[in-house]
């Protein structure tokens, strides 16, 4: 009888605009049958093109606080004035079914996950420079200038936390950055399954 496969929990962080979504998308394109993206709940407004239940579950602050009180989140944090949380049951059930899960979450949340699930694998995506980060964030065109400033202000202290992660990847050349994440994914999922 074949042993039940084990899913691995990956936590990916990095400052807003560094390219987390872009790199993770490549991982899903290649390994979509073996990994799932955990859809977080957030109190922030949807961006144009975002759909409820796809990028996030967009909920009110009141609903968010109710879920915190009910202990429904594996971790949760406030980032740039909005609340974000990872639904616990969904993530645990995927892992039990042998599906690896990617959490694209902020530094505070990543530390909570590492403390609760030390076997998880944490990866921090770094920009090649602060100027390039600013350029990407502005180029994406999804935030107002004021919100961009807020995210850039958060970026410096986030980057200071990079050494606390198991792996650090500089997203300079996209293909090279993806090749590193891909290598980590393959190594860790193979290791978990002997
Ligand atoms: P995040 O999910 O970390 O907020 P995104 O994946 O949305 O960041 O990327 C922010 C912007 O930077 C996007 O416009 C994306 O196309 C661009 N980008 C991502 N990776 C690179 C790269 N290696 N070189 C140049 N631009 C990139
Ligand atoms: P954005 O508003 O750009 O989608 O996300 C802002 C920040 O919140 C990013 O760093 C993103 O990774 C983080 N984030 C998204 N979902 C969660 C979550 O469930 N928990 C935590 N702690 N951070 C999250």
Which helices and strands, and how do they pair?
Layout (H helix, E strand, L loop, with lengths): L8 E5 L6 H12 L3 E3 L2 E3 L13 E3 L2 H9 L3 E7 L2 E6 H9 L3 E5 L2 H10 L4 E6 L3 H11 L4 H16 L6 E4 L3 H19 L2
Parallel strand pairs: 1-7, 1-8, 2-7, 3-4, 8-9
Antiparallel strand pairs: 3-6, 5-6
Helix pairs in contact: 1-7, 5-6
The structure holds adenosine-5'-diphosphate and guanosine-5'-monophosphate.
Keywords:
9 strands, binds guanosine-5'-monophosphate, 44% helix, single chain, 194 residues, binds adenosine-5'-diphosphate, Rossmann fold
* Beta strands, count: 9
- Please give the radius of gyration in angstroms: 16 Å
Please write the string of helix (H) and strand (E) elements.
EHEEEHEEHEHEHHEH
Treating each run of at least 4 consecutive H or I residues as one helix, how many helices? 7
Q: Indicate how many domains the architecture comprises.
A: 1
Mean pLDDT: 94
Largest sheet: 5 strands, parallel
Residue share in β-strands: 15-25%
- Please name the CATH topology: Rossmann fold
Residue windows where pLDDT falls under 50 for at least 5 positions: none
CATH architecture: 3-Layer(aba) Sandwich
Class derived from helix and strand content = alpha/beta
CATH class division: Alpha Beta
How far the N terminus sits from the C terminus, by CA atoms, comes to 15 Å
Report the bound ligands by name, code or SMILES.
adenosine-5'-diphosphate, guanosine-5'-monophosphate
The outline comes out as globular
Helix content: 40-55%
Q: Look at the structure and name the CATH superfamily.
A: P-loop containing nucleotide triphosphate hydrolases
Strand order of the largest sheet: 2-7-1-8-9
